Amino acid sequence: MYFAKNLRFLRRKAEWSQSDLGDKIATDYNTISRYESGKSTPKLEALTKLARVFDVSIEELRSVDLTKPAGPGQVEEPSATYPISGRRPASSATSQAVKHPLVVSIELDGTVASLERAVARLTAINDVIAATN
Known about the structure:
By secondary structure, the protein is mainly alpha-helical. The protein has 6 helices and no strands. Helix 2 packs across helix 3.
């Protein structure tokens, strides 16, 4: 949903040309241009390389608007891949700890924005798990 917009945003943030990015993932600038315009969608191999180059997950690259900083009140809704029924409002202050065998890996780049995104996403995950009980 956000792939083309995120790719352009991340490339420009890194101050790379389309050719520079193409070199990093072993493709050409025309392919990068088609990805950014939405005319083409990368296969899994290219998507994996792009996620690795920008240090984001494939899910973030595809489904989260990375152009907007995610603060505590700006959590992206989960994609249709993770259906939720009966979700509680995120503003509920009476969250109770729930024990589930869930492992979550978070990569931080040392910025406040990445920490805020991580906290917001973990809070959203906790709310989803708590709502399923």
